[in-house]
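User: structure tokens for this one?
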Amino acid sequence: MAEPDPAARKFWILQAARFGAVLMVFIGALIIGKILDLPEVVGYILLVIGAVEFFLVPRILMRNWQKNGQ
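Assistant:
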């Protein structure tokens, strides 16, 4: 059996991180729009953290992979 392609593994890790961030933003928007019954401040926190995560986590992962030679 062939070894899995490391580039494909990294690609799917990045996509999972981005999907999680988008999901967090979506849930935050649902809370802010009063569709989910949670405090509005929770929605704003999720929205901001999800947006930051969407842009920063993939860059941090890629930088670590390059630094470690993976």
